[in-house]
Write a structure and sequence with these properties.
Layout: E1 13-14, E2 18-26, E3 30-37, E4 42-49, H1 57-71, E5 81-87, E6 90-96, E7 100-102, H2 103-110, H3 115-134, E8 147-150, E9 155-157, H4 174-180, H5 185-189, H6 195-211, H7 221-230, H8 236-239, H9 245-254, H10 266-275, H11 290-314, H12 323-331, H13 335-344, H14 351-391, E10 397-399, H15 408-417, E11 421-427, E12 437-441, E13 446-448, E14 452-458, E15 463-465, H16 474-480, E16 485-486, E17 490-492, E18 502-506, E19 516-518, E20 522-528, H17 540-548, E21 553-560, E22 570-574, E23 586-592, E24 597-599, H18 609-618, E25 622-624, E26 639-640, E27 647-649, E28 653-657
Amino acid sequence: MSDTPSDPMLGRLIDGRYQVRSRIARGGMATVYLATDLRLERRVAIKIMHGHLADDNTFKSRFVQEARSAARLAHPNVVNVFDQGQDADMAYLVMEYLPGITLRDLIKDYGRLTPEQTMDILTAVLSGLAAAHKAGIVHRDLKPENVLLADDGRIKLGDFGLARAASNNTATGQALLGTIAYLSPELVTRGVADARSDIYALGIMTYEMLTGEQPYVGEAPMQIAYQHANDTVPMPSATVPGSPAQFDDLVAWATARDPEDRPRDARVMLDRLLSGEPLGSPESGSVRGGAGATLASADQATTVLTNDAHAATMVLPGEYSDIADAETQIFGSTPLAAGAATAGSSGSEPPTEHGALLATKADKRKRRGYLLFVVILLVAALAGGTGWYFGVGPGSQVAVAKTVGLPQEKATQKLTALGFEVVPVKRTDPEIAPGTVIASDPSGGNAPKGSRITIFVSIGPKILQVPDVIGAPESDARAQLAEFSIGESIREFSTGAPLDTVMAVLDATGNPVGPELAERAPVTLLVSAGVIPDVAGQTVDEATATLDAVGLHAEAGERVFSDDFADGAVIMALAPSEAAVRVGDTLTLRISKGPDVVEVPNVITGQTIASARKQLEALGFVVTSNVPQFLEGAVVAGAQDVDAGKMAKRGSTISVNFY
């Protein structure tokens, strides 16, 4: 689903820590966004419950339960949950971000999967599900949409406890249909679920991976539910001829209508799958195809061994099949005929010579028998030794456990317990926390017991030298700082830096960066916006338009007298404080009231110099006189040097004298 400008969450900072970047997906209960954890400087997926569900305690409790369930699981095949909280009226859940697709997307793209692909995915899902079952957690919503296939090859199980319905009363809809396709019979008939219900859903998923379709379809959800409760899931080979018989047995075992006939949990099923033993429960009749073939092969091996031993006894004389045949070949007749001929003819070979020849042949047969017996013993010993070496000895093949996402110590213990030699290699990573396994070589499959497994362990992001870009054009600076996360530039007015050149590089706290910084760390460029335009002498409207053109706002301020600017003209634009002026700031306009002048009154109309002084000083003039001050109250003013009725500037001097 593409981002829309109307989404109010885009760009929002949640709980002062998680900066929302883009929308990943939207469901009936929550929306998932890609966000940046500003504290740990890594990408995360943040799931935010829809606002209209915030007052529903049932949904809120299930939302929190998902966080608690997943947080109890530390397993490479389970999506990690990092945090859970409430920001105002918004409940959120912070999870590991896995760029990639879901199993549903894979099935849609390929139609159906190969047995090898199915085996890989099934093993990974069973591993994660086994960890959940061991922790006492039943997933209850196992389906291809909840199996995540990361771009780096990791396979993870997610969405523990997430309710897909829009409300408590929802009975239809695509989300519910998707869930019904994987409901076990006991959930349909009795509404109860345990680990074996997850196994049933996994069996349906296995059928779907191999065939590209679900075993039951119907126009209404109740039709599908009825088939789950009353029908036997068909074999994959019935839909896709040539599908391995072992998968028929696995699907039959996992989807048995009676939960008692299924594996009791994912660990039992996983162990049986990896051991090569027959799949299914013979007592329940769920063994079909491949398992039967395996048992038949064992019987045949026993029979062949018996026949071979008997045949070895039969052919010891070489070309003779038994003693009677040998005597016939030696004497030209059976022993009885030879005896008769001896009794009736004196020219025949004496019987004793015949007996000696027969004894010689018998000795040869005996020696050959001992030799063949010794050869059989040697072959058996060699076969046994070879079987031991490749079965449980140093040459045996062992499944390489998944260790991605595990702490180094736990990953080492896990691989060592399987008999591998573990070699840790440190590697920088801008997203994975230090001490966590990033990858392994080999990353999966089987490897000889005792062989070397290399695990790559994160030491955090690479520390880089920060290029000196002060004074460089903004475009050049961005190219040189490409290994960092560069945000939107801040433009600041300056008299000393040319337009569009970099004045500083700021870190996430707003302070200038040092000489070194972690890769992909957020940085902000402080770029020169040039000089603030001079608006002195312009009208208020003209000054406002001039400042708006460079990204500044203007507001009218106080009006003051000015000898230099006419009434109504702008004297200057003032910044709100001593801080530097940046694009988007507001400046205050100081406006002129014109020169400060006043009309001079007539002060020589029979009043004393003292009263004239008082009248002129009240108007702001400076008064001088040729009469001593102590006589001003007694002397009548006779002349003023600025004629009455003229305009004079406040503060100017007027002389009042006596004639």
